[in-house]
Design brief:
Length: 630
């Protein structure tokens, strides 16, 4: 009886042991499959797998389930197909995995059951909801260099090329949205240097947001550090004569005595005085009902004792009229350099190619009339609205009257409107043109792109707002100018905000679900702004909009750095995730950039073009949310 009972007992115990081993092997095989599809999908930079992606998936599978684990047999092809294998799933952004093997039994083999069959499958996808991504991109002059800071003429080695490739990779990973999940994915872009180009977007949205687009004379004038022409209307009854004296023996330098004394109708001791010719002293003067102007004409040193000085005498029946308003017959007199208003309405309208260009109000250097000047067309770069000039490097909150740092404020007055940046009219007090700043490529609002290189940008209603492709836009980015992080962050936030200028568009999604908002801030350098250069905040040494006019560059940049931190905090307070990528030759992210990011893990350093592409790719994958779908 004991012997008869032995076989059932062995069967029960052996079956339990082998089944338990099988379950453990099956579970570990499933884990390995899951790890493989996750790794394969994370490795992908597009919608389909490459051989390198499949290799990465197999590497993770093998790490979690080395061949022979749990006394399993070697993996062999199944129906002529690789085993394990990782392939594209149905639809984009999905990876499917399969693995089969057999495990050798221990006790059950005495009953003729030598092996147990193990089979698993798995799938991974980017599980994407509604996402808005605003890329704030540094396009300053140093982006024309190599990542190590050296110059190059090889386009493929330049940082700007690495950036363009990184943006394309980002799109290929995150994609266009839609599909079975009905997700909405929109992309916006804000290239910046020391300037920002948003004029046409503002004009299209509401011209009254701009000084020059309101429609009333007072609201459409803006004050520039500029110049004003003075004109002279010639007097009537002109009689021109020439008078001369011998200035030999005059006090001091005889040439000076000729030009600056006799020539200007001033006493020239001891050889001559105005009374000798019956005039009062100086020029111009009115005498005996006539108006006189005297001017130096010539000087001729004939001999030591004969130095002939000749002057021009112009007598008018009625005097010339001097005015700042041109009228027929007036001739240009001189320029006055100061802060003056210019009507900018035609200049603002010129942002549209269908409208004519605008006459530059500062004309040519010696204009012949009030229309004798070049015509300008606005390129879209702006001057910021009013700010608070007493923000310091330690200010920890945005003052209420710092309108430029208010993300959502809708313009309602000249102080809260934006102004056109007009290089041609800006002059210093010495008469020289002010140093200006380069205008970057225009920023783009949030839009959906069905593909990177074939489809236009659409708003949430499906209307085309950007007819060109995303590829052509990114290709147009051109490096130039200096670096003002603050203005890039300000306008990236404005174009992304669900409660500001574009709230109607930005606050809704097609499927009605919430939107996850992300701002990617990419810069290749330190803050580099100048108080003695005309930029988005005017010419600080004359305007004093951000700091007292005597502020030097070092203190000016410290103030701007603090304003940048204030803006980063304001953006994060809206619930937006900030990602920061520092694109320099240093692997250590600068403190002010790290502090701007949502967390330390949201800041990365890229020291090469390849590393920049990886950084953008990692953000895209994290935003997308890699998930096991099976």
């Amino acid at each position: 009886m004991a012997a008869a009972a032995l076989f059932p007992i062995v069967g029960i115990i052996g079956g339990g042991i082998d089944i338990g081993r099988g379950y453990m092997a099956q579970a570990r095989l499933q884990q390995a499959c899951d790890a493989g599809v996750l790794a394969g999908r994370r490795s992908m930079s597009g919608a389909t797998m490459s051989s390198a992606d499949a290799t990465e998936a197999r590497k993770f599978f093998d790490f979690n389930f080395p061949e022979g684990s749990f006394d399993t047999d070697p993996f062999l092809p199944v129906d002529g197909k690789a085993n394990p294998r990782f392939v594209d799933g149905p639809g984009d952004k999905t990876v499917n995995g399969f693995a089969e093997t057999t495990i050798n039994t221990s006790l059950m083999k005495i009953f003729g059951y030598d092996k147990m069959h193990l089979k698993v499958d798995c799938s991974s996808r980017l599980d994407i909801g509604n996402v808005d991504v605003m890329m704030v991109l540094d396009v300053t002059g140093s982006m024309n260099w190599k990542p190590d800071g050296s110059s190059t003429s090889n386009e493929s080695l330049k940082k700007i090329t690495g950036l363009k490739n990184a943006v394309e990779d980002f799109y290929n990973i995150l994609g266009s949205g839609g599909g079975a999940q009905g997700s909405q994915i929109r992309y916006g872009f804000m290239p910046y240097n020391a300037m920002i180009n948003v004029g046409e977007t503002l004009y299209d949205a509401d011209p009254s947001w701009l000084v020059g687009g309101v429609g009333t004379a007072e609201e459409d004038e803006w004050n520039y550090q500029t110049r004003r022409a003075h004109w002279k209307v010639p007097g009537t009854g002109l009689r021109r004569t020439y008078e001369q004296i011998n200035v030999a023996g005059a006090d001091g330098n005889d040439r000076d005595a000729c030009e600056f004394k006799f020539g200007q109708n001033k006493s020239t001791p001891p050889v001559w005085s105005p009374g000798n010719s019956g005039y009062g002293s100086g020029t111009p003067l009115t005498q005996n009902g006539y108006y006189y102007e005297f001017s130096f004409y010539s000087y001729d040193r004939k001999s030591k004792n004969n130095k002939v000085c000749k002057r021009k005498v112009e007598r008018y029946d009625s005097p010339p009229v001097k005015t700042t308003t041109w009228q027929p017959g007036a001739v240009f007199d001189f320029w006055e350099y100061d802060e003056f208003d210019h009507d900018v309405s035609k200049y603002v309208k010129s942002i549209k190619s269908s409208n004519p260009s605008a006459l530059r109000p500062t004309l040519y250097n010696t204009p012949t009339s009030n229309t004798n000047g070049p015509n300008d067309r606005w390129d879209g770069c702006i001057e910021e609205r009013d700010s608070y000039a007493d923000i310091t490097a330690t200010t920890n909150a945005i003052p209420a009257n710092a309108y430029d740092l208010d993300i959502d404020l809708i313009p309602e007055s000249k102080a809260t409107r934006w102004r056109p940046y007009w290089t041609g009219v800006e002059y210093l007090r010495n008469g020289s043109s002010a140093s200006d700043s380069s205008c970057p490529t225009a920023g783009r609002r949030l839009a959906e792109y069905a593909s990177y290189d074939s489809n236009p940008g659409l708003n949430s209603a499906g209307s085309t707002i950007y007819p060109g492709t995303l590829k052509s836009y990114i290709s147009s980015l051109s490096p130039n100018g200096n670096t003002n992080h603050t203005i890039g962050m300000i306008w990236g936030a404005r174009f992304l905000s669900p409660t500001g200028l574009f709230a109607t568009e930005n606050s809704k999604s097609k499927n009605g679900f919430n939107i996850s908002r992300h701002l990617i801030f990419m810069t290749d350098g330190d803050l580099n702004v100048f108080p003695n250069r005309y930029n988005v905040y005017g010419y600080n040494q004359l305007d004093g909009r951000l700091a007292p006019t005597g502020t030097g560059q070092s203190d000016y940049e410290k103030i701007q750095a603090q304003r940048f931190q204030l803006m980063c905090n304001a953006v994060k307070a809206q619930g937006t995730t900030i990602w920061v990528i520092q694109f320099t030759n240093s692997s250590t992210v600068q403190t002010h950039l790290k502090n701007c990011a949502t967390s330390e893990s949201h800041a990365a350093a890229a020291t090469s073009n390849t590393a920049l592409q990886d950084a953008f790719g990692d953000i895209a994958k994290t935003i997308g949310g890699l998930r096991l779908s099976k």
